[in-house]
Amino acid sequence: MNYSLILQNISEIFIAEDLSPVLKGPHLLIAADENGKISFVGKSEDFRKTEPGFETKFKDVIVDAGNKAVFPGLVDSHTHLVFAATREDEFAMKSRGATYEEIAAAGGGIINSTVKTKKASLEEIVEQASKRLSQLVSYGVTTVEIKSGYGLDTESELKLLTAIAELKKRFPVEIVPTFLGAHAYPPEFKNDHEGYINLINNEMLPEIKARNLAEFADVFCEEGYFSLKETEKLMLRAKELGFGLKLHADEFHSLGGTELAAEMGAASVDHLEAISDLGIKKLAENGVVAGVLPITSVFSRLPFAPARKMAENGVTVALATDMNPGSCMCGFLPLAASLGATQLKLSVEESLKGITINGAKSLKRDKTKGSIEVGKDADIVIMDSSSVAYPIYHFAHNHCEKVFVKGRRIVG
Ligand SMILES: [Zn+2]
């Protein structure tokens, strides 16, 4: 057997398996085969039994973890990191107490980003997004979902999705593209909702499918955005065309979107700050992941989603950044786990699962990503600490030291 990586001298591994998520050392070892798949996880001495003399035989692929803790590559399952301009002017309004609705009414919000996105070239958008994505990778993120949704016309939405496709070519990480044309009504359709829904359903979705530019379709189901009925029309069409479904729901008001998406077999419903008890029940019953975004709650002064209650009722809770220029200008995923373990009352293990295996479930990547198990991709992060709890306990600091994707080092 040949190896792409033999990582030895590991103190602890957050393997992210259900029953016993942490493997305690010392002297743990992870080996990855020549295809970058994990082939061994356990004690060095056990590996030596099957590979005697591996230290000399495979010395070119051996990496010493320095008695530090190792994690699966982190999974940011909800971002909007492809956009053309930042909005610190609105941030200043917000800091003085303006609400999301007031900012939108003043011509800000999503529409502000839309105007700037339409003007920007594809290359400008890719350059800006590359910088942000590099930052995420330096935190240990190896799988990331990225949504469109700042174009809101066919040409501009295709431009954003093309930018995401370009990032896929430039970065070795796993990028999952989601189409969010139903992010807001563009001004020209303010009084013609049916017209915009027809544009999405009859023009955008089929074209995106034909070009294979998105895996999921998403809708912002909220008062002032897409009603329950409108959301249903969009999700039905997306499903019919073969897209996976995601939904922004219950951020400010519970309109029934969560319940509907759960019944339609969505991969995840995200936000959920105002989720109803029925919504929680439906997510659990249908095995739909709750995408909780605690950094957004901090940044936008929203209540936190009831993650503890969801977890206790059998819902799989993923934690993501929601990185976007308006409501959460932060891509530091470990902070979502720190907020999980503090503000959301999740355990350390639940919080770490939120940014690894549960994120992977929300993106339908849990067969290959999100945990350290034999057969999965060797996407591995070494953090500068000896315990798995430390990087989210010593919070808001980047502890990431080395990152591997499919057994190949990409950071450190
Ligand atoms: Zn979002």
What does it look like?
With 412 residues, the protein is an alpha/beta fold. The protein has two domains: 111 residues, Urease, subunit C, domain 1 (Roll), CATH 2.30.40; 289 residues, TIM Barrel (Alpha-Beta Barrel), CATH 3.20.20. 38% of the residues lie in helices and 24% in strands. The strands form two sheets. The chain has an eight-stranded parallel β-sheet. It binds zinc ion.
Provide key terms for this protein.
Urease, subunit C, domain 1; single chain; globular; 15 strands; TIM Barrel; binds zinc ion; eight-stranded parallel sheet; 412 residues; alpha/beta
Structure in a nutshell:
This protein is an alpha/beta fold and 412 residues long. The chain has helices spanning 44-50, 54-57, 88-95, 100-105, 110-119, 122-138, 154-170, 193-210, 228-240, 257-263, 277-286, 294-299, 307-312, 333-342, 348-354, 357-362, 390-393; strands at residues 3-14, 22-33, 38-43, 62-72, 74-76, 141-147, 174-182, 216-221, 244-249, 268-271, 289-292, 317-319, 380-383, 400-405, 408-411.
List the helices and strands and how they pair.
Layout (H helix, E strand, L loop, with lengths): L2 E12 L7 E12 L4 E6 H7 L3 H4 L4 E11 L1 E3 L11 H8 L4 H6 L4 H10 L2 H17 L2 E7 L6 H17 L3 E9 L10 H18 L5 E6 L6 H13 L3 E6 L7 H7 L4 E4 L5 H10 L2 E4 L1 H6 L7 H6 L4 E3 L13 H10 L5 H7 L2 H6 L17 E4 L6 H4 L6 E6 L2 E4 L1
Parallel strand pairs: 1-4, 5-6, 6-7, 7-8, 8-9, 9-10, 10-11, 11-12
Antiparallel strand pairs: 1-2, 2-3, 4-13, 13-14, 14-15
The protein binds zinc ion.
